[in-house]
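Structure first, sequence second, as always.
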């Protein structure tokens, strides 16, 4: 665990109603498992630390496009991705192309977390518990709240041919961003997925946001 993961672990286990799934007998689990049971097992948390910075990859991709795309804008020195997108003749298509590369690690984490939460529900007979993906960021600058919201919304809204959601076991995403933020500000985004069944969970997460800010002796950022 890195510092943020350790801090989140201490925060979750500071309440007696929460459990680390690793503390349960291994024989309960035949397949994958999530990380925590929260609020007397009404929530199942899977925690993922965002550490795949694709900045260099994106830079290489942009360099390739500059050589092969006649519509690619001319720039010198360092420029932001947003500046390149805005200056491109086909900015919408270019934006989708670049952001798809940027979002690949998020897609993979969502796929993995969905399976872990599903298997935990089956193992513990907790099908009515709400599945939560917690994303922790303290090292990747491109993972802003707006970017995470866009990517998570896109991946969680995908449906199967029968109309059901592909990632139905992730009902809420809690994004905690501590990259380039003040130690006195708690930046935590609650993203409600389209498969949420229990609307009461929304109030529980407002409580969790307040508790997390208090744990960090910080104010809550408006987001």
């Amino acid at each position: 665990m890195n510092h943020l993961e350790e801090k989140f672990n201490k925060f979750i286990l500071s309440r007696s109603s929460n459990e680390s799934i690793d503390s349960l007998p291994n024989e309960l689990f035949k397949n994958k498992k999530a990380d925590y049971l929260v609020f007397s097992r009404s929530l199942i948390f899977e925690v993922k630390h965002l550490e795949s910075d694709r900045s260099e990859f994106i830079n290489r991709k942009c360099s390739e496009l500059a050589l092969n795309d006649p519509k690619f804008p001319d720039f010198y020195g360092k420029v932001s991705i947003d500046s390149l997108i805005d200056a491109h003749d086909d900015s919408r298509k270019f934006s989708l192309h670049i952001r798809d590369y940027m979002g690949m690690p998020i897609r993979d984490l969502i796929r993995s977390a969905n399976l872990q939460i599903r298997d935990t529900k089956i193992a513990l007979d907790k099908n009515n518990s709400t599945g939560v993906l917690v994303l922790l960021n303290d090292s990747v600058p491109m993972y802003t709240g707006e970017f995470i919201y866009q990517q998570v919304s896109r991946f969680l809204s995908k449906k199967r041919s029968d109309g059901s959601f592909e990632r139905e076991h992730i009902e809420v995403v809690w994004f905690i961003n501590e990259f380039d933020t003040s130690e006195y500000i708690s930046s935590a985004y609650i993203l409600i997925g389209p498969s949420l069944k229990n609307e009461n969970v929304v109030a529980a997460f407002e409580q969790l946001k307040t508790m997390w800010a208090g744990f960090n002796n910080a104010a809550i950022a408006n987001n």
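Margin note: The beta strands are 19-20, 36-38, 43-50, 130-137, 172-177, 185-186, 188-192, 219-220.
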